[in-house]
Amino acid sequence: MSTEPTFSFATTAEDVATTFRDEIKGKNVLVTGTSLNGIGFETARVIAKYANLVIITGYNSERLKLSEEAIKKEIPEANIYPLVLDLSSFASVRKAAAEINTQPEPLHVLINNAASLWVDFKLTEDGLETQLATDHFGPFLFTKLLAPKLLASGTPTYTPRVVNVSSVAQAHGAVDFDTLATPNQAKYSKRGAYLQAKSANVLTAIELSKRSKGKINAYSLHPGMIFTNAFQNEEAIAIWQSRGALGPDKKPNPASAHPWKTIPQGAATTVAAAFDPRLSSQAGAYLDDSTVANHLIAPYNSDPVNAEKLWNITEKIIGETFTF
């Protein structure tokens, strides 16, 4: 008798990919933000064992090459396509999307994993705050431009997916609609911008699923507390030390109320969101520990009025309108 797979805090990306290898086979997947020693790389690595094609992205071509070589060394038969992409630049996003759109293959899954965390206030070349540009506006535009590729993969038995890697931080944030198009340095804080971005990730997944009317299923998720470069920022270190997550040595505190995950554990929920067939009837869901956890979404971020408002403002800012 077959049993439904069950996942937990300790589940790894490898576990999930092995469980859903039949769903991954033949799929073309794009993962943004795939530098070594990150959850995006781990996501791409385990998917590459079974997928038809894995497109990996990064804004630094040399680091992107290292990721490609590492995957190919472990999995010589993997079909890896490196794509230079700077999500903070609309021009770079358009160039990267145009490159993918010239390829003959459809796109089954888009994983918006890349993020800019805890950075000082700075405007992008498009006049937007860098953290929100990289974490929300860039991925939104990229998703819009690749939507035809995603729609081309749909069949009567398969619905393409978009996965937004958010954070438990969404529960503490709310989008400041007044400063999206006109950033206000006086009101800026690194943590505040991060919370807004993670809130936007959840709202966008909900609204994308709604507007596509069954043609694209979008999900958002909390990967877990993972000790990455984001915790090397002095301001972030001070905040997490005050909460007991980091010790005096600036390393993860084993006794933290917020338990730490390894990178393989942190990438697990992303792979589940991309391939767990049980999610097909739960478009717009939010996942934690590789399972649906909609009860953890802050009321602000599950409010359809906020989701629609953010969508409309974002389309105006990027100068692009979604069509399905």
From TrEMBL:
GO terms for molecular function: oxidoreductase activity. Transmembrane segments: none annotated. It comes from the Eukaryota. Keywords: Oxidoreductase. The keyword Oxidoreductase applies. Signal peptide: none annotated. Gene3D superfamilies: NAD(P)-binding Rossmann-like Domain. Belongs to the short-chain dehydrogenases/reductases (SDR) family. This is Uncharacterized protein. It comes from Mycena alexandri.
